[in-house]
Design a protein that fits this description.
Blueprint lengths: L6 H8 L5 H11 L1 H16 L4 E4 L6 H12 L1 H11 L1 E6 L3 E6 L6 H6 L2 H6 L9
Antiparallel strand pairs: 1-3, 2-3
Helix pairs in contact: 2-3, 2-5, 3-4
């Protein structure tokens, strides 16, 4: 199970009533490593004059790598994180996470980061099975 959902929230979800703040709190509490990485890049992105900030340090264990993969592979989790932090997240190599300023989305730097060429350039033998 990727998220630890309180029973009361699960009951409300059954009737279709869950707001973003509740969902984001579940993500924060269930995936603390992913939350820490995304909050760090989002904060640095807001502070930098550049278009984005990134985190390229491999997770310390497979458990943390799993958290990052679950957070960024899920459209609902990723979307909630993007709305919460006001950024567009980009992901490469099972651990490289970037937070782009919304004004940069669609621009040359963003398009380069998400391109197949950039993905291929960021491969290495030690990351093959991540």
């Amino acid at each position: 199970m990727s998220l630890d959902v309180p029973a009361a929230l699960l009951e409300r979800a059954e009737s279709g009533r869950v707001d973003d703040a509740e969902f984001v709190a579940v993500v924060r509490d269930s995936l603390p490593y992913a939350w820490a990485v995304v909050s760090e890049v989002a904060a640095r992105s807001a502070e930098t004059p550049g278009e984005f900030a990134d985190h390229a340090v491999p997770p310390p264990s497979e458990a943390e790598r799993g958290q990052l993969l679950r957070a960024l592979a899920s459209d609902s989790i990723r979307g909630a994180l993007e709305r919460h932090f006001g950024v567009k997240l980009a992901f490469q190599n099972c651990h490289r996470v970037a937070a782009f300023k919304l004004s940069a989305v669609g621009g040359e730097t963003y398009q380069e980061f998400i391109s197949p060429v950039a993905q291929i350039r960021n491969q290495s033998p030690e990351l093959r099975d991540c």
